[in-house]
TrEMBL record:
UniProt-recorded Gene Ontology molecular function terms: 3-phosphoshikimate 1-carboxyvinyltransferase activity
UniProt xrefs under Pfam families: EPSP_synthase (PF00275)
EC class (word): transferase
Domain of life: Bacteria
Organism: endosymbiont of Tevnia jerichonana (vent Tica)
Record InterPro entries: Enolpyruvate_Tfrase_dom, Enolpyruvate_Tfrase_sf, EPSP_synthase_CS, RNA3'P_cycl/enolpyr_Trfase_a/b
EC number: 2.5.1.19
Ranges where the Enolpyruvate transferase domain occurs: 2-188
Keywords recorded for this protein, A-Z: Amino-acid biosynthesis, Aromatic amino acid biosynthesis, Cytoplasm, Transferase
Stated family: Belongs to the EPSP synthase family.
Gene Ontology BP term (one): aromatic amino acid family biosynthetic process
Name this protein carries in UniProt: 3-phosphoshikimate 1-carboxyvinyltransferase
Length: 235
């Protein structure tokens, strides 16, 4: 059965930031997931595969990404653009995220607004759409962000920016959303916690991160996000 797209994106992102080798099985070889994979290759990450759903990522560490020589083309992948906005906001170099005509017509303020509150500088096209020009070298500060509507992508973007922020980053959801990012951060030995809230709200708190991720993760993906399998951590 095909792997899960949401986990495939996050496996590439977090495996690239980890130190050491991350092996992913069940990687979904679709255009959106491959857009994320190719973006990290463009930033200097060695990635083997995909071959029959298997990907091997040679992580470069939290500060190891390199400035790409051209804008990162994310095709039609809104997940790639929203999550990468958070990760790229904390890098030391400038980067531009572009997409196809469909992706370029989708407003991105739901992501760029909270990132701006953290200190990120992101220039958008008229109407708040892509391309997104993200200025590097900005000092990010953690925020306590209450999402106006439930969105796993917006939550994840803020938490990923929180990896590079000073202080505590907290997101509060009006309703529970998929928690792949939190679970995978925990698997990578980041200090991440999830707490239930009033049965209809979930709060994900990402504390000031450690200097590096000292564990590797080898996720065996479920066929859908609601499946029973969870990421498996290898020491």
């Amino acid at each position: 059965m095909p792997g899960d797209k949401s986990i495939s994106h996050r496996s590439i992102m977090l495996g690239s930031l980890a130190e050491g080798v991350t092996e992913v099985t069940g990687f979904l070889e679709g255009e959106d997931s491959l857009a994320t994979l190719n973006a990290f290759r463009a930033m200097g990450v060695e990635i083997e595969g995909p071959k029959a759903g298997r990907v091997v990522i040679h992580g470069v560490g939290m500060q190891g990404l390199k400035q790409p020589s051209a804008p990162l083309d994310l095709g039609n992948s809104g997940t790639s653009m929203r999550l990468l906005s958070g990760l790229m906001a904390g890098q030391g170099f400038d980067v531009t995220l572009v997409g196809d005509s469909s992706l370029s017509g989708r407003p991105m303020q739901r992501v760029t607004d909270p990132l701006g509150q953290m200190g990120a500088q992101i220039d958008t096209d008229e109407g708040g759409t892509a391309p997104l020009s993200i200025h590097g070298g900005r000092q990010l500060t953690g925020i306590d962000y209450k999402l106006p509507m439930a969105s796993a992508q917006v939550k994840s973007s803020v938490l990923l920016a929180g990896l590079y922020a000073q202080g505590e980053t907290c997101t509060t959801e009006p309703a529970p959303t998929r928690d792949h990012t939190e679970r995978m951060l925990e698997g990578l030995a980041m200090r991440s916690a999830v707490m239930a809230r009033a049965h209809v709200s979930r709060e994900a708190v990402l504390y000031a991160p450690a200097a590096s991720m000292c564990r590797r993760i080898s996720p065996q993906q479920p066929s859908s996000w609601s499946g029973p399998a969870l990421p498996r951590v290898q020491m």
